[in-house]
Prior knowledge:
Two copies of one chain form a homodimer. By secondary structure, chain A is α+β, with helices and mostly antiparallel strands. In chain A, 40% of the residues lie in helices and 19% in strands.
Amino acid sequence: MAKMTPRTLSGFMELLPAQQQQMEHIMETLRKTYALYGFTPLDTPVIESSEVLLAKGGGETEKQIYRFQKGDADLSLRFDLTVPLAKYVALHYNDLTFPFRRYQIGKVYRGERAQRGRFREFYQADIDIIGDGKLSILNEAEIPAIIYKIFSSLGLKRFQICVNNRKVLNGFYAILQLTEKSTDIMRTVDKLDKIGAEKVSAILQNDLGVSEASALEILRFININGSSQDVLSSLESYKGRNELFDQGLEELSTVVRSLSAFGIPEENFTVDLAIARGLDYYTGTVYETVLLDHPEIGSVCSGGRYDNLAEYYTDKQLPGVGISIGLTRLFYILGDQKMLNPNLPTAPADVLILPMTEDLSDAIKLATLLRENGIRVQLHCENKKFKQKISYADKLGIPYVIFLGDDEIKAGVVACKDMKTGEQTKLEAAATVYRIKAGLDNLAQGPVILEG
Amino acid sequence: MAKMTPRTLSGFMELLPAQQQQMEHIMETLRKTYALYGFTPLDTPVIESSEVLLAKGGGETEKQIYRFQKGDADLSLRFDLTVPLAKYVALHYNDLTFPFRRYQIGKVYRGERAQRGRFREFYQADIDIIGDGKLSILNEAEIPAIIYKIFSSLGLKRFQICVNNRKVLNGFYAILQLTEKSTDIMRTVDKLDKIGAEKVSAILQNDLGVSEASALEILRFININGSSQDVLSSLESYKGRNELFDQGLEELSTVVRSLSAFGIPEENFTVDLAIARGLDYYTGTVYETVLLDHPEIGSVCSGGRYDNLAEYYTDKQLPGVGISIGLTRLFYILGDQKMLNPNLPTAPADVLILPMTEDLSDAIKLATLLRENGIRVQLHCENKKFKQKISYADKLGIPYVIFLGDDEIKAGVVACKDMKTGEQTKLEAAATVYRIKAGLDNLAQGPVILEG
Lengths: 452, 452
């Protein structure tokens, strides 16, 4: 028979089993952390009606959307988890209780040009808190605590949560009487790291018609740095000149004030006035998260406060705050940077049982006992040489191998080999369970991510 | 602004938060059980190249496939998890270790005619064990143990795992010299429950040209029943007349023999000679699982042994055995039959903290302490009336509410209300943690599914 050469589409991540286990560890950490902060899991369809999904208009994204006909229906694959959330909240408004806190880890689709490290199918891991009409600033203050918990649970220490406030920015530009140009200015300022201060200044003056004095003021402003307290103090000098600015400064102060109560170390947090986030709909606190040893990667967890989640679907005012992790890209980068802990268990099982007798009853009973104790077991009964069976455990990194022959069965013991140390014990089944569990607890130590 | 009416496509399940929590409980049970039996998690793309996905040809399914162009590419959404597995194993053959045991819980797509209880996007939960060249019969014997563990972990008792063997069937038809007609005969026999013995007999004789004697023999054969041992004994009478039959009987006996060692109660298992499974590629043991109180639903977990997983992609002989649960449909049915345990916790948090002071530091620290102890916490700082906040906890089913006012902070205690009993305690933070954890352990008891 002629064979079709199997292949996976380019831009679609498909992991080998050991890598997949690492990905599962990360997802499990995210799920657990989100749950601890009172977010409920949500799952929405991958496919939506195009007119619903694209109600806002897609802009830059629209070209990348996977859109197609099926029968009479014009369908699209979701390109983020925010639009489906907006639809969900508007549609199920009467069945939800606000503030509504949800997390969602799901695949989204964007037909980007294929290149290394870019994906067309990728996981986003989002959390959002949605208020009905209004939403307390404390929700914005809690987000950095969640980001901190996520990345430190994954094993990272050298990361920084960067926070700014759009009201501070918009207020500042109002003070300079540049409100109408503020979006263009922020877009330019966003390139500071890439093109440098001189070019930013040139674009501001030549392309956007900002005066030299204002350009200088803008660059001075976004370069304000130091500790969070220092930045807040510097901002005090603008106070009293614009209501929006003052409100933003108050919010930013509240967020900073909560940090120590939330237990976030000073070094993992900064107020960065250069951050604006491209999206137009952020209206308050905005967040980015950078890996300090890999600034070239950009932000690995971003988001902010918005005033109107679902304005395309409902008259209801639904303010919210949310963050998103581009999980597939993050996983790719961690692998690429050799930051995934190679010592974390990735085996499909904790124990491989090799029955050495014709009658398998005792082996099966032992497997059942182990499983009842939460130990993951494979029974290996293939007709292969002993050496091949040991090599199977070895290749997969299965930490314990149990041999069960007539002698052991008669003596009421179990021969169990620790594959790492080579140590072999002959103990009763219950004692073997105890030994393996203790050993596994030791193995399981260590985070998913290792730093440099 | 004109609003777009939000809607979710028909045939696409979108759950409210409490239902979603129930679904998560089920998925978590599946993941845990699969892992205990040494299956490794796998995740493959939802989109595949059409020529790869449809290498086998789709038959009945082909019309239902979501297939579309994106740029030059002819793409399709996966319609099951088996074809992607075949592709995966063929593609990554050199990186895998055999026997390869994987589980996958993922969404698949079929553009079926929309009707109640039928879904176009639905989860399948699959496990497969793939051998390289050959695969021991013990793997087939272990599958009923896994099915038993899954459904009993979910809380079901009144279910039955039905097993048959294709070699027994094919051997039997060879004995009757009906090998060429066997596929058509099995398809007809499969309708026995729906159309009755008389009509089956009529079709066999009139449409398929089976002799009256053979039709009688076939009906007698598939009606053999009683205990597994009884059925095996009845089958002994056909022994020695066909090699394939003898081999199948030997396999079936091995599977039955393992049952008690695997701890499967007699009442949850039966040998059912009427089961053939429609798919052509099953070659050995086949499985179905029925809910005894809801036979009308049909099988909720099916599968079998096949000889050639990936014959369209590779010359390698890759025999395997697998089962699949149509999770979305199962969930829908369980809900429809009111079998989902309404008492299982579905709240987004275990504790709602209501800070009663301007300064939130103590409330935040308490939240952190609770979270460090694995307790899911929401801080509720919205500007709302006390009554509204209590109602928030009540609506969401959050079991504990904590009030933290100046008095409590001064006294170093925490006021904590059990929302179910109304009992309120004032204890130190550590004692409150202890009390809540004990209470939650009690709440968490009970399975996902309740029977009649």
